[in-house]
């Protein structure tokens, strides 16, 4: 099964405009050699599939999403019996600037550690547009801005979690390889060589 609310008629002068929203239980094989004319986000809620973009082939599983900027050539398809995707498309006079501020200039794949904010915003936007009442498109624009903000927050939180896990792994490997030696905090910091606190790098002193 699938459902799409598209196109959505709204004020094209809005900074952020919700152009479409939908979901599917089984994503058909999609090939767009010229890309899509507006940005899109697909979020996987079940099953698995593959995305091909920017010369990379990436498996997309539950809890992962992929962002595609406008005119980005891409291909994606299901690899199993099911691939549940929730998607949104958007534009607006301030869209390019906002995506630049959010670091979404190129195709991106994100493994989310917490998607509750994204899920909530998507569901609210979907419910608003399902009503089909007057001015609902304008209300959806406001929720689309919240959706993108929640997406950005989840993106940076997921990146921070991945960095922290990577640091822990490197530290564990270093300790295992040098367990017969004297190990100091300074040596471990030198080994991992990444910021341990957001925005701050701990200096190494010999």
List the helices and strands and how they pair.
Blueprint: E1 2-5, E2 17-24, E3 30-32, E4 40-53, E5 56-61, E6 64-68, E7 74-91, H1 95-101, E8 108-111, H2 116-131, H3 136-177, H4 185-192
Antiparallel strand pairs: 1-2, 2-7, 3-7, 4-5, 4-6, 4-7, 6-8
Helix pairs in contact: 2-3, 3-4
Word description of this protein:
With 206 residues, this protein is an alpha+beta fold. The protein is 35% helix and 30% strand. The chain has 4 helices and 8 strands, in the order βββββββαβααα. It has helices at 95-101, 116-131, 136-177, 185-192; strands at residues 2-5, 17-24, 30-32, 40-53, 56-61, 64-68, 74-91, 108-111. Strands 1, 2, 3, 4, 5, 6, 7 and 8 form an 8-stranded antiparallel sheet that branches. Strand 4 (40-53) and strand 5 form a beta hairpin. It starts with a strand and ends in a 14-residue tail after the last helix. Mean pLDDT is 85; it is low at 194-206.
Shape: elongated
Number of helices: 4
Biggest pleated sheet = 8 strands, antiparallel
**Can you give the helix content as a percent range?**
25-40%
Compute the average pLDDT.
Answer: 85
Strand content: 25-35%
**Segments where pLDDT lies below 50 for 5+ residues?**
194-206
> How many DSSP E strands?
8
Helix/strand class: alpha+beta
Q: What's the N-to-C terminus distance?
A: 62 Å
Q: Topology as H/E string?
A: EEEEEEEHEHHH
Radius of gyration: 21 Å
